[in-house]
Write a sequence for this structure.
């Protein structure tokens, strides 16, 4: 089964399930669905940053400071956060990611409910080659500079940028 054939829950603006559809149809019709974003930190508190593969259906070859993805039909945000983090980082045995906040992303690419998590990954990573072209770990300060001043000529995923800005704006944020 291709990624476009994966069945997703379709939700309304209040994050209530209204139906199901294949991912390709959800994207083509601009239907609201659910996603998770997981900020992964290593033992030195650095943040995992990566470039998505060119084969991704949404934002191919863009850079992101979160791992994550869409929720399958019937999957909870917490289940998806752990599954996506382990898949994309290429590890097993991560602790359950900690939920931070949720928001409705509306922008380039469409609209989706986005639940943001954080996880500590002290295991050696072996990112999934079908998802990740390149990766590194950056300190928060290094990441902030690259996001703010365009030090790197990168195209960032707009939903990840929105999640990161919201995360940094939280009064309790150590991010």
């Amino acid at each position: 089964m291709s990624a476009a054939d994966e069945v997703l829950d379709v939700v309304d603006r209040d994050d209530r399930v209204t139906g199901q559809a294949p991912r390709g149809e959800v994207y083509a019709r601009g239907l609201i669905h659910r996603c998770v974003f997981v900020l992964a930190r290593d033992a030195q508190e650095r943040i995992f940053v990566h470039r998505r593969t060119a084969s991704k259906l949404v934002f191919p070859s863009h850079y992101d400071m979160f791992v994550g993805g869409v929720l399958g039909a019937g999957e909870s945000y917490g289940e998806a956060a752990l599954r996506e983090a382990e898949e994309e980082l290429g590890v097993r045995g991560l602790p359950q990611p900690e939920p931070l906040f949720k928001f409705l992303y509306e922008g380039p690419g469409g609209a989706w409910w986005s639940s943001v998590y954080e996880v500590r990954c002290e295991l050696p990573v072996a990112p999934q080659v079908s998802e990740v072209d390149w990766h590194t770990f950056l300190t928060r300060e290094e990441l902030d500079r690259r996001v703010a001043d365009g030090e790197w000529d990168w195209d960032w995923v707009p939903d990840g940028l929105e999640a990161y800005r919201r995360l940094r704006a939280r009064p309790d944020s150590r991010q």
